[in-house]
């Protein structure tokens, strides 16, 4: 699995381990949801992740180290 699209799904929360086994994932579309917060570990182990779209959510703050385990 290299791409995952969750656009327009009204997602409000993502468990920190939700993507942990998707080590080949390189594109993640989370735009047009209702995300307010992302745990700092939500993208852990996604070493091949190159693109994340978080536009059109309700995020007010993104932690500096949110993408520390990605490309």
Question: What can you see in these coordinates?
Answer:
The chain is mostly beta strands. 0% of the residues lie in helices and 13% in strands. A three-stranded parallel sheet has the order 1-2-3, with no helix packed on it. It is globular and about 25 Å long. The model has no long low-confidence stretch (mean pLDDT 94).
Concise account of the structure shown:
The chain is an all-beta fold. It has no helices and 3 strands.
Strand content: 5-15%
- Helix share bin: under 10%
Largest sheet: 3 strands, parallel
- Give the uncertain stretches in residue-range form: none
Radius of gyration: 11 Å
Question: Which term fits the overall shape?
Answer: globular
Count of beta strands:
3
Average pLDDT rating: 94
Strand order of the largest sheet: 1-2-3
Count of helical segments?
Answer: 0
The termini sit apart by 17 Å
Q: Order of SSEs, N→C?
A: EEE
Structural class: mainly beta
């Amino acid at each position: 699995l290299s791409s995952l699209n969750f656009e327009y799904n009204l997602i409000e929360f993502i468990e920190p381990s939700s993507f942990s086994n998707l080590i080949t994932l390189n594109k993640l579309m989370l735009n047009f949801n209702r995300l307010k917060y992302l745990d700092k570990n939500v993208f852990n182990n996604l070493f091949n992740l190159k693109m994340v779209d978080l536009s059109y959510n309700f995020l007010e703050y993104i932690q500096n180290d949110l993408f520390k385990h990605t490309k």
